[in-house]
Amino acid sequence: MKSVYKSFLPVACCLLLITSCSVNKANNDESLKKYFDENKVDGCFTMFNNQDGEVTVYNMKYDTMRFSPASTFKIFNSLVGLQTGRITDEKMVIKWDGVKRWNEDWNKDMDMTEAFKVSNVAYYQEVARRIGKDTMQQWIDSIGYGNKKIGGSIDSFWLNNTLKISPDEQLGFLKKLYFDQLPFRKSVQQMVRDVMLQDNNTAYQLSYKTGWGFGEDGNAIGWLAGWIEENKHVYFFVTFVKAPVKEIDMRTVRLNITKGILKQYGFFEGKK
Questions:
Q1: Strand, coil or helix: what is 118?
Q2: What is the pTM of this model?
Q3: Mean pLDDT of 141-170
Q4: For residue 47, how many other CB atoms are within 10 A of its CB?
């Protein structure tokens, strides 16, 4: 389906800050609580309707709290890697290092597109090492990504709670990526948007990146952050999940919550 990115530029011109909105101006929708309760988790959901500027939030206490971005940082890592040439394009292969990891999907040579889709930690750790600490810090500072801290380890700061970002900040970052408002080449931002696309059909286009890690308190945390397009209208959303058990099926939980909420709001039918 033809891209609709340019259709929103007049509205997007005012969206210059990485933070998405003031939660004081958001609509609080407590009806979304059931989706978290059904899955026995805590968390929040935030959505921005770019057409009318409406912001909807469930559980505002988490919306501006910062947490490890976990694998949602692969969006940023991809942008910097492509911009600096450490990733030549989305088809650049990094050889498997021979170390067997818990996810069998990671144990092979892989290009960026596949590494992004299967959330290959090792691939992106190597990308970060090639970028280097100083360059990575410069880009994080220039964007104002979360708390802007990377500490002493270039290949784990987005996993070990050094770098943190809030759901609200994630939303603002995604909006700027969608509208080519980040300080990267437009071709770079387009490549990253392309690899984020998960569902593409005549009714809607759904793009997102997931994340899964553990907070400083030992609780499991999960992300699903992206946007959905229907009838040339775009809606940005962030689902954040927090659970006290490490054995949670985060892959299923975060997607079920997100799709349940989107369905409640009338998405997936091409009528929005």
A1: coil
A2: 0.91
A3: 97
A4: 25
- Dmax over Cα atoms in the chain, in whole Å? 51
Q: How far apart are CA 252 and CA 178, in angstroms?
A: 26
Q: Do 1-64+168-183+196-272 and 68-165 fold alike per CATH?
A: yes
Distances from the Cα of 261 to the Cα of 45, 125, 178, 206, 268, angstroms: 9, 33, 22, 14, 11
Q: Which member of 20, 71, 78, 207 is catalytic?
A: 71
CATH superfamily of 1-64+168-183+196-272: DD-peptidase/beta-lactamase superfamily (3.40.710.10)
pLDDT(216) > 50:
yes
pLDDT at 21: 52
Report the C-alpha gap between 242 and 247 in whole angstroms. 12
Fold (CATH) for 68-165: Beta-lactamase (3.40.710)
Residue 16 predicted with pLDDT over 60: no
Instruction: Examine the pLDDT at 137 and tell me if it is beyond 50.
Output: yes
71 is an active site residue: yes
- The domain ranges of the chain are 1-64+168-183+196-272, 68-165
The pLDDT assigned to 24 comes to 53
